[in-house]
Amino acid sequence: MATIFTKIINGEIPCHKVAEDANHIxxxxxxxxxxxxxxxxxxxxxxxxxxxxxxxxxxxIVFAKKVAxxxxxxxxxxxxxxxxxxxxxxxxxxxLIPMNNVGDMNFxxxxxxxxxxxxxxxxxxxxxxx
Length: 130
Known about the structure:
130 residues, HIT family, subunit A
């Protein structure tokens, strides 16, 4: 059965896309820890990040770097943190989270409630800086 991320890739579920290439897509998390919290995924459905072939893992990280640099231009933050949890959805994904202190990366923190319009505006700003 296809994951929710595969359904997003296939256009079956909408997302606030910030970047895409032939093998990857990045979109805003709908339950973000911070404005600009983005998920970066390979289009090929693979559950565990370390099951990716070396060249696919390298390409995913390089794509994530480009997305992180775009986020940093748009969202006021000290750094863009990186987290790979991989338990929520059985599809490799990297969380890119704008942060000003280590506590901003705590997934137990309350999630932001952003409107679709706010998410669309953030996505557009990141996309324009990608």
